[in-house]
Hints:
Blueprint: H1 3-15, E1 16-19, E2 26-32, H2 36-51, E3 58-60, E4 65-70, H3 73-81, H4 97-100, H5 105-119, E5 120-126, E6 133-141, H6 144-156, E7 162-166, E8 177-183, H7 185-194, H8 200-212, H9 220-228
Antiparallel strand pairs: 1-2, 2-4, 3-4, 5-6, 6-8, 7-8
Helix pairs in contact: 1-5, 5-6, 8-9
Amino acid sequence: MDSKLSEIAGIHSGDGYLRYTGKRKEFDLSGNYEEKDYYDFYLKKLFEDFFKINVNLKYFPKRKTYGFVIREKKVIKKLKDLGFPSGKKASIVRCPKSILRSDNIEVISSYVRGYFDTDGCLYFEKKKKDSYYYPRITISSVSKGLIEDVIFLLNKLEFKPLLGVKIPKGSTNEKIKYILYLNGAKNLELWIKKIGFSNPSKYTKYLVWKKLGHCPILNYKQRIYILNKNCSFIEKGL
């Protein structure tokens, strides 16, 4: 298992869609337009270098996302061989067994990073008693098996994640969500050391927190502005 392929597997576990049954065979990956830099400067190169193909990025107006579609047979076969299902995968997706069995720290961290960069959340919660902003890393999925797999991998990296369950209230079509938590500054700094971020939209939240001691609810461009200036967003009145 190559670390690049492991990260690609994590990325697909989060935001990918694979179809290999029927006439139309393709791999589709897209996310929020705010993550355009992640696609332009990281994902494009990652997929092109590993698979030796050309990746054409585009905006999908109907779903308001940014990404790409690949119909190369070798890409589809590689993901299929890793055990990923064709079609809707949200409730059944699992981490590939070859990654779960691996003791290679780079392979393990690459998968977790790829999955978090596409489907995870980093936020900072203000403590009531003081001005400290408490960091929280979370990943949620309707696939209980996937969250259990990621917890297993994080344990290998010496993390101690917590597991929560969000049960829908009343009669709703919403499914039960399983939520992984890593709380506190020690876990965040350990994450930076052992896993890191490839998605700048996620990473800039950490950098702003390090600079200001908190991270306001801002968009990616605003966070970049703060990091490039010796003042806060509010001080500029933007």
